[in-house]
């Protein structure tokens, strides 16, 4: 069953926003142009049975995973259709982010928020999701704009269940499951061993295709003080953040 949610790109008395967050919110952005329609599907998984003497009955089971689908575009120029205060990236950079997140093997978080003036608290929807489909194209008459369609499917965190034996007062053995841990959406850092001539800026250039601007991230991740920057030892193992491209 499809549940369409109509979104007015410029509501008079309401603010609407859609945001995609990745890697625990260290990456992400709001959609610069809101889609004309946002479709959220969640199908039921009940079954029908025909019982002797009772006739047909239907059982209610847990609903299926939510699926979200919409189309929009990344603008090359500001305009009245832009929902955000400013455009933070070039159109192809937005599209490249989605492609990279899709290839990463990690879920993102879909956030939909709408604020009504007559209510104090906004309506928000946050769902961890995987990208199941992403198409991008350009259209004549809109030079520089990147149009796209995006399909998302709800992600359910799972892990192997650990069991442990427990002795009861009656002397029998019961099995108890260990408590679940909070799922981790963060992409794990990698290790780098310093060599002669290395500085954090040079390491950043080596690891991120000539981009030296990410050295403060390496400094913060390893707890390196400003006074230590010129005294880093050869052979020191550093944790480095994953590449963004």
Automatic annotation (TrEMBL):
Source organism per UniProt: Paenibacillus albicereus
CDD domains: LysM
Matching InterPro entries: LysM, LysM_dom_sf
Domain LysM as annotated: residue spans: 190-240
Protein's name in the database: LysM peptidoglycan-binding domain-containing protein
Domain of life: Bacteria
